[in-house]
Amino acid sequence: MAEAPLARTILAPSLLAADFARLKEEAAAIERAGADWLHLDVMDGHFVPNISFGPLVLKALRPHCRLPFDVHLMISPVDPYLTAFAEAGADHISVHAEAGPHLHRSLAAIRELNIKAGVAINPGTPASAIAPVLDLIDIILVMTVDPGFGGQKFLTSQLPKIAAFRRMVEEAGRPIRISADGGITHANAPEVRAAGADVLVAGTSVFGAADYREALIALRGDSGAASPGKVVP
Ligand code: DX5
Ligand code: ZN
Protein backbone atom coordinates (compact mmCIF):
# COMPACT_ATOMS: atom_id res chain seq x y z
CA MET A 1 0.00 0.00 0.00
CA ALA A 2 1.37 3.43 -0.92
CA GLU A 3 2.30 6.01 1.71
CA ALA A 4 -0.73 7.84 3.12
CA PRO A 5 -0.94 11.16 1.27
CA LEU A 6 -1.79 13.23 4.32
CA ALA A 7 1.07 12.01 6.50
CA ARG A 8 3.50 14.83 5.81
CA THR A 9 2.57 17.92 3.84
CA ILE A 10 5.43 19.83 2.27
CA LEU A 11 5.03 23.61 2.33
CA ALA A 12 6.63 25.42 -0.59
CA PRO A 13 6.24 29.20 -0.36
CA SER A 14 6.44 30.95 -3.73
CA LEU A 15 9.03 33.70 -3.85
CA LEU A 16 6.94 35.47 -6.48
CA ALA A 17 4.97 37.10 -3.65
CA ALA A 18 8.09 38.18 -1.71
CA ASP A 19 9.60 41.66 -1.66
CA PHE A 20 11.76 41.66 -4.80
CA ALA A 21 14.01 44.38 -3.39
CA ARG A 22 14.95 42.02 -0.53
CA LEU A 23 14.98 38.55 -2.06
CA LYS A 24 17.98 37.35 -0.06
CA GLU A 25 16.41 38.33 3.25
CA GLU A 26 13.03 36.91 2.21
CA ALA A 27 14.50 33.52 1.24
CA ALA A 28 16.40 33.31 4.53
CA ALA A 29 13.34 34.40 6.52
CA ILE A 30 11.05 31.79 5.01
CA GLU A 31 13.60 29.08 5.79
CA ARG A 32 13.74 30.25 9.43
CA ALA A 33 9.95 30.30 9.56
CA GLY A 34 9.75 26.57 8.80
CA ALA A 35 9.20 26.23 5.04
CA ASP A 36 10.20 22.90 3.46
CA TRP A 37 10.97 23.98 -0.11
CA LEU A 38 11.35 27.35 -1.81
CA HIS A 39 9.17 27.57 -4.92
CA LEU A 40 10.61 29.73 -7.70
CA ASP A 41 8.31 30.84 -10.51
CA VAL A 42 10.12 31.53 -13.77
CA MET A 43 8.05 33.35 -16.40
CA ASP A 44 9.06 34.37 -19.91
CA GLY A 45 6.34 36.72 -21.19
CA HIS A 46 5.66 34.19 -23.95
CA PHE A 47 4.33 30.96 -22.44
CA VAL A 48 2.64 33.11 -19.79
CA PRO A 49 1.77 36.81 -19.97
CA ASN A 50 4.24 37.92 -17.31
CA ILE A 51 8.02 38.03 -16.79
CA SER A 52 9.69 37.23 -13.47
CA PHE A 53 13.34 36.14 -13.15
CA GLY A 54 15.87 33.65 -14.51
CA PRO A 55 18.82 31.50 -13.42
CA LEU A 56 21.00 34.44 -12.37
CA VAL A 57 18.59 35.20 -9.57
CA LEU A 58 18.61 31.56 -8.40
CA LYS A 59 22.38 31.54 -8.44
CA ALA A 60 22.52 34.73 -6.37
CA LEU A 61 20.09 33.31 -3.79
CA ARG A 62 21.61 29.83 -3.54
CA PRO A 63 24.21 30.68 -0.84
CA HIS A 64 21.58 32.34 1.35
CA CYS A 65 19.00 29.57 1.63
CA ARG A 66 19.40 25.84 2.34
CA LEU A 67 15.90 24.83 1.29
CA PRO A 68 15.48 22.74 -1.84
CA PHE A 69 14.86 25.05 -4.80
CA ASP A 70 11.59 23.92 -6.40
CA VAL A 71 11.73 25.58 -9.80
CA HIS A 72 8.56 26.03 -11.84
CA LEU A 73 9.42 26.91 -15.43
CA MET A 74 6.62 28.75 -17.22
CA ILE A 75 8.72 29.17 -20.33
CA SER A 76 8.73 27.93 -23.89
CA PRO A 77 10.97 26.61 -25.29
CA VAL A 78 12.26 25.00 -22.13
CA ASP A 79 14.98 22.54 -23.14
CA PRO A 80 17.70 25.13 -23.94
CA TYR A 81 17.55 26.45 -20.36
CA LEU A 82 17.45 23.28 -18.23
CA THR A 83 21.19 23.06 -17.67
CA ALA A 84 21.42 26.73 -16.69
CA PHE A 85 18.76 26.30 -14.00
CA ALA A 86 20.35 23.11 -12.68
CA GLU A 87 23.77 24.77 -12.52
CA ALA A 88 22.22 27.78 -10.78
CA GLY A 89 21.04 25.52 -7.96
CA ALA A 90 17.66 24.02 -8.84
CA ASP A 91 16.89 20.82 -6.91
CA HIS A 92 13.64 20.19 -8.78
CA ILE A 93 12.63 21.47 -12.19
CA SER A 94 9.01 21.34 -13.32
CA VAL A 95 8.20 21.99 -16.95
CA HIS A 96 4.72 22.55 -18.32
CA ALA A 97 2.95 19.75 -20.14
CA GLU A 98 1.74 22.45 -22.54
CA ALA A 99 5.12 24.12 -23.14
CA GLY A 100 6.06 22.11 -26.20
CA PRO A 101 5.67 18.90 -28.17
CA HIS A 102 8.52 17.02 -26.48
CA LEU A 103 7.59 16.52 -22.84
CA HIS A 104 9.26 13.13 -22.71
CA ARG A 105 12.51 14.59 -24.01
CA SER A 106 12.41 17.45 -21.48
CA LEU A 107 11.84 15.06 -18.56
CA ALA A 108 14.64 12.78 -19.70
CA ALA A 109 16.94 15.81 -19.94
CA ILE A 110 16.08 16.90 -16.38
CA ARG A 111 16.80 13.41 -15.06
CA GLU A 112 20.15 13.44 -16.85
CA LEU A 113 20.99 16.48 -14.71
CA ASN A 114 20.46 14.36 -11.57
CA ILE A 115 17.70 16.49 -10.12
CA LYS A 116 14.02 15.79 -9.56
CA ALA A 117 11.75 16.12 -12.57
CA GLY A 118 8.29 17.64 -12.40
CA VAL A 119 5.44 18.34 -14.77
CA ALA A 120 3.15 21.31 -14.26
CA ILE A 121 -0.33 21.02 -15.71
CA ASN A 122 -2.69 23.87 -16.57
CA PRO A 123 -6.31 23.96 -15.41
CA GLY A 124 -7.56 23.20 -18.92
CA THR A 125 -5.36 20.14 -19.45
CA PRO A 126 -6.65 16.69 -18.43
CA ALA A 127 -4.73 14.43 -16.04
CA SER A 128 -4.44 11.84 -18.79
CA ALA A 129 -2.01 14.12 -20.68
CA ILE A 130 0.87 13.08 -18.46
CA ALA A 131 0.00 9.42 -17.85
CA PRO A 132 2.32 8.16 -20.63
CA VAL A 133 5.37 9.80 -19.03
CA LEU A 134 4.59 9.09 -15.39
CA ASP A 135 7.66 6.85 -15.09
CA LEU A 136 9.89 9.93 -15.53
CA ILE A 137 8.04 12.17 -13.07
CA ASP A 138 8.90 12.90 -9.42
CA ILE A 139 6.51 15.82 -8.92
CA ILE A 140 3.13 16.61 -10.46
CA LEU A 141 2.46 20.34 -10.15
CA VAL A 142 -1.27 20.85 -10.48
CA MET A 143 -2.11 24.44 -11.37
CA THR A 144 -5.08 25.62 -9.37
CA VAL A 145 -5.05 28.98 -11.18
CA ASP A 146 -4.06 29.91 -14.72
CA PRO A 147 -0.29 30.36 -14.52
CA GLY A 148 1.29 33.78 -14.83
CA PHE A 149 0.32 35.74 -11.75
CA GLY A 150 0.19 35.43 -8.00
CA GLY A 151 -2.83 36.43 -5.96
CA GLN A 152 -5.51 34.75 -8.07
CA LYS A 153 -8.55 32.88 -6.84
CA PHE A 154 -8.22 29.14 -6.24
CA LEU A 155 -10.08 27.02 -8.80
CA THR A 156 -12.12 24.37 -6.97
CA SER A 157 -12.73 22.79 -10.39
CA GLN A 158 -9.21 21.33 -10.13
CA LEU A 159 -9.88 19.23 -7.02
CA PRO A 160 -11.12 16.18 -8.98
CA LYS A 161 -7.93 16.30 -11.05
CA ILE A 162 -5.81 16.22 -7.89
CA ALA A 163 -7.82 13.18 -6.78
CA ALA A 164 -7.29 11.53 -10.18
CA PHE A 165 -3.56 12.07 -9.84
CA ARG A 166 -3.59 10.57 -6.35
CA ARG A 167 -5.18 7.40 -7.75
CA MET A 168 -2.68 7.37 -10.62
CA VAL A 169 0.27 7.76 -8.24
CA GLU A 170 -0.92 5.02 -5.89
CA GLU A 171 -1.25 2.71 -8.85
CA ALA A 172 2.25 3.61 -10.04
CA GLY A 173 3.58 2.49 -6.67
CA ARG A 174 6.53 4.87 -6.58
CA PRO A 175 6.94 8.09 -4.59
CA ILE A 176 5.60 10.91 -6.74
CA ARG A 177 4.70 14.18 -5.03
CA ILE A 178 1.45 15.90 -5.93
CA SER A 179 1.78 19.64 -5.57
CA ALA A 180 -1.04 22.20 -5.77
CA ASP A 181 -0.11 25.68 -6.95
CA GLY A 182 -2.22 28.82 -7.01
CA GLY A 183 -4.59 30.53 -4.62
CA ILE A 184 -3.78 28.21 -1.71
CA THR A 185 -4.79 29.56 1.70
CA HIS A 186 -5.35 28.13 5.16
CA ALA A 187 -9.06 28.07 4.29
CA ASN A 188 -8.78 25.77 1.27
CA ALA A 189 -5.65 23.82 2.28
CA PRO A 190 -7.65 21.08 4.06
CA GLU A 191 -9.71 20.24 0.96
CA VAL A 192 -6.62 20.37 -1.26
CA ARG A 193 -4.85 17.91 1.03
CA ALA A 194 -7.93 15.74 1.33
CA ALA A 195 -8.11 15.51 -2.47
CA GLY A 196 -4.61 14.08 -2.42
CA ALA A 197 -2.03 16.86 -2.65
CA ASP A 198 1.02 16.45 -0.43
CA VAL A 199 2.80 19.67 -1.41
CA LEU A 200 1.20 23.09 -1.04
CA VAL A 201 2.69 26.01 -2.98
CA ALA A 202 1.57 29.32 -1.56
CA GLY A 203 2.69 32.83 -2.42
CA THR A 204 0.33 35.55 -1.28
CA SER A 205 -0.99 33.71 1.77
CA VAL A 206 2.55 33.31 3.15
CA PHE A 207 4.65 36.26 1.94
CA GLY A 208 1.64 38.56 2.26
CA ALA A 209 1.28 37.69 5.94
CA ALA A 210 2.78 39.76 8.73
CA ASP A 211 4.21 36.65 10.42
CA TYR A 212 5.54 33.96 8.07
CA ARG A 213 5.76 31.29 10.77
CA GLU A 214 2.14 31.81 11.75
CA ALA A 215 1.10 31.65 8.10
CA LEU A 216 2.92 28.32 7.62
CA ILE A 217 1.39 26.88 10.77
CA ALA A 218 -2.06 27.93 9.56
CA LEU A 219 -1.45 26.28 6.18
CA ARG A 220 -0.29 23.07 7.80
CA GLY A 221 -3.40 23.08 9.91
CA ASP A 222 -1.61 22.10 13.08
CA SER A 223 0.70 23.71 15.57
CA GLY A 224 3.67 21.40 15.83
CA ALA A 225 5.03 20.64 12.38
CA ALA A 226 6.70 23.86 11.26
CA SER A 227 10.12 23.13 12.67
CA PRO A 228 12.80 25.49 11.37
CA GLY A 229 16.04 24.31 9.88
CA LYS A 230 14.66 21.01 8.61
CA VAL A 231 15.34 20.23 4.95
CA VAL A 232 13.06 17.77 3.16
CA PRO A 233 14.33 16.63 -0.25
C1 DX5 B 1 1.39 31.22 -10.69
C2 DX5 B 1 2.52 30.63 -9.90
C3 DX5 B 1 2.23 30.39 -8.47
C4 DX5 B 1 1.87 31.63 -7.71
C5 DX5 B 1 1.30 31.27 -6.39
O1 DX5 B 1 1.74 31.29 -12.02
O2 DX5 B 1 2.91 29.40 -10.45
O3 DX5 B 1 3.32 29.72 -7.84
O4 DX5 B 1 2.95 32.48 -7.55
O5 DX5 B 1 0.93 32.45 -5.79
P1 DX5 B 1 -0.45 32.62 -5.00
O6 DX5 B 1 -0.33 31.71 -3.82
O7 DX5 B 1 -0.47 34.06 -4.67
O8 DX5 B 1 -1.54 32.18 -5.94
ZN1 ZN C 1 4.43 28.13 -9.34
Account of the protein in words:
The chain has 233 residues and is an alpha/beta fold. The protein has one domain (10-220): Alpha-Beta Barrel (TIM Barrel). The chain is built from 8 helices and 8 strands; from the N terminus they run βαβαβαβαββαβαβαα. The chain has an 8-stranded parallel sheet with strand order 1-8-7-6-5-4-3-2. It is globular, with a radius of gyration of 16 Å.
Quick rundown:
By secondary structure, the protein is of the alpha/beta class. The chain contains eight helices and eight strands. D-xylitol-5-phosphate binds next to strand 2, strand 8 and helix 7.
Question: For the residues shown, what is the average pLDDT?
Answer: 94
First and last CA, distance: 22 Å
Structural class: alpha/beta
Total count of helical runs of at least 4 residues: 8
Q: What strand order characterises the main sheet?
A: 1-8-7-6-5-4-3-2
Q: Please provide the count of β strands.
A: 8
Low-confidence segments: 1-6, 223-229
SSE arrangement:
Layout (H helix, E strand, L loop, with lengths): L9 E4 L9 H10 L5 E6 L11 H7 L7 E6 L7 H7 L3 E5 L6 H10 L3 E6 L17 E5 L15 H14 L4 E5 L7 H7 L3 E4 L1 H4 L4 H9 L13
Helix pairs in contact: 2-3
Bound molecules: D-xylitol-5-phosphate (DX5) and zinc ion.
Pick out its properties:
binds zinc ion, disordered N terminus, globular, alpha/beta, 18% strand, binds D-xylitol-5-phosphate, 8 helices, 233 residues, 8-stranded parallel sheet
